[in-house]
Design a protein that fits this description.
Helix content: 10-25%
Order of helices and strands: HEEEEHEEEEHH
Distance between the termini: 61 Å
Largest sheet: 8 strands, mixed
Shape: globular
Structural class: alpha+beta
Number of helices: 4
Oligomer: single chain
Radius of gyration: 16 Å
């Protein structure tokens, strides 16, 4: 167990809220449609977004980028501002704890054929509406369903 996870579990045992970071990988299709990537969890096989514990010496944005590479096998540019937050109940060995998650959007530039957790996870590109239907955590489902990407305004050809 990583030191940051141990610290988080100690906090949880004291009744304190704990924090994680997550990435929502996204892309624009050739037709201009916005899609997000979900991955399956290792244990329950439910659809989730890549997430993990904060990493010592790394910003939340950088940690989310690393989690996306490890869990979803994607590389890209993580946007500076968080897209939002959500909370969920995390299953530990003998209890559940409430976790607050800060979510960053990651614009995918490359999908790796082989990545660290490829044998333990599946990934899927979906519209935000379809992704939201597959996600069990209500707060995350709402966040994904309402995601938008700021696009440049069209140039007026007058």
């Amino acid at each position: 167990m990583a030191a940051t996870k141990k610290k988080a579990v100690r906090k949880a045992k004291k009744g304190e809220r704990i924090r994680q970071v997550a990435a929502i990988p996204f892309r624009l299709t050739a037709g201009g449609e916005f899609e997000v990537m979900l991955v399956t969890s290792r244990t329950t096989r439910r659809f989730i977004v890549p997430k993990g514990w904060p990493m010592k010496g790394k910003s939340g944005r950088k940690a989310a980028t690393i989690e996306a590479q490890e869990e979803a096998g994607v590389l890209g540019k993580t946007l500076k501002q968080p897209a939002g937050t959500y909370s969920y109940w995390k299953r530990l060995t003998n209890r559940f704890v409430r976790v607050d998650v800060i979510v960053y959007l990651l614009e995918v530039t490359e999908e790796l054929a082989n990545w660290q957790e490829a044998k333990r996870r599946q990934r899927a590109w979906l519209t935000p509406a379809d992704a939201a239907m597959l996600i069990d955590e209500p707060d995350l489902s709402t966040l994904v369903r309402t995601l938008t990407i700021d696009r440049p305004a069209p140039i007026d050809a007058a």
